[in-house]
Amino acid sequence: MEANGGHLVAEMLQRRGVDVVYTLSGGHIFSIYDGCVKRNIRLVDVRHEQTAAFAAEAHAKLTRDVGVACITAGPGVTNAVSAMTTAHFNGSPTLILGGRAPQSRWGAGSLQELDHLPIVSSVTKHAETVFKGDDVPRAMANAISAATSRHRGPVFLDFPMDGLFRPVEADALPDVVEQHAPHGGDLDRAKALLQEAERPVLIVGTDVWLNRAEDVLRHLVEVAQIPVIPNGMGRGCLAADHPLCFSRARSFALKNADLVVVAGTPLDFRLGFGRFGDAKTVHIQDSEAGIGTHANPDAAVWGDIAAILHELADEQPIDRTEWIGKVTNEERTRREADEADLNSDAYPIHPARVYGVLREKLDRDAVVAGDGGDFVSYAGRFVDVQTPGAWLDPGPYGCLGLGLGYAIAARVVHPDRQVVLMAGDGALGFSGMDLDTLVRMNLPVVIVVGNNGIWGLEKHPMQAMYGYDVAADLNQEARYDDILKAFGGAGETIEKAVDLPDAFDRALGAGVPYLLNVLTDPANAYPRSSNLA
To answer: I need a surface site. Which of 121, 269, 290, 475 has the fewest CB within 10 A?
Structure first.
């Protein structure tokens, strides 16, 4: 067919089934836009390239398929680097398409002339400049394959303008062939350890979701009677109200376990770097590179996580009723202890009270995203995720400012479900102008800002270390709801806990983007025990 490079980019996206591209306009990528318009691929345009790339990453996590962002050259690409890095750490199959100054004038000082590849190569699975239009189909097929093959991750392609706009004659277009890493490790040893264990615990992470292993996970834990502790997008893979899913009893379970099986998440700071006292460990990942060799697990297995969990379910376990009972009692005790904060009418508002109200208002399949420090740590503790693929958080890279991109993608992917973004007031500052995107694109999302007027994750520890703090104060008088109103959305400020239930009802029923600016207690510090370094 006769086309140009930009049309071929769009054609390859359409052949893959991509029907939305997140973007911010720039002349370098007009040809791709033209190809998308002619193929009815939706363009969701935002106010900052980081939001486009974060939205593409969230789209990838929610759909378990490639998410696409298209950004202009130079600063467009550098603005998206943090989002690419987040996708790298999260293993999200994200395709970032960048414009590039024309190759025919390279070195002469064209607008936004920059070699992007040295900047992005360390945080992408593959990065390539596609110089000629007739190379686009091959490059796109290879890029999508790399992004979606285990272990998944971001891929970057950029296109010089002179190659992108020039007419080409394309022959038969290539198919995308996913090339997954082979299985390996000691599955028999893992099965034996599980069979022998009296007090096992299974930690499930994001890659259990991305590898479509939620059904076999449920079968395994019910057959083997293993307590499950969810992590990342592992939340919801086993419903929070399933009798074998635990969140509050995590410390107790890990302290008393004789075997910890970690599936689909790295052995990083969130899991004590894989040190679980005297317990033996099994690490299951979808590729060998993800195995936490620094922790020297007793058994490691890699490959298709669903297939591995299915194999583990083959063995009939010993009776673990007593162990399950102890973990269940601990879970119940800790949940009962949390009720005071979740129902607190204290003034200023205890941040946990926000979640106490939220839990009563969420549909079972609501999508909740978190973007922040202490306020979102409470979300991780108190939001019970009942549906697979309904939780979005920053992941181990901990990059703030992704919230609005995540919320945009969640509403695009799930137009008929509740979408709620829980954001710290500090985090909202990174991408607040994209409140405008929610209004322009008619994406009714509820944003709850925990406004304590400080960088809480820094202020309290600095005071404890030095007796003072610096560079840790914000402005609690800021009316973040008025910003959204100025763009055409709606919102309100909440100062008293008693007003929260009705405010949530108004927000969830508004049918427009709605921001609840909740003034929370700046003296409250999340009771953190993790070693972040």
So the answer is: 475
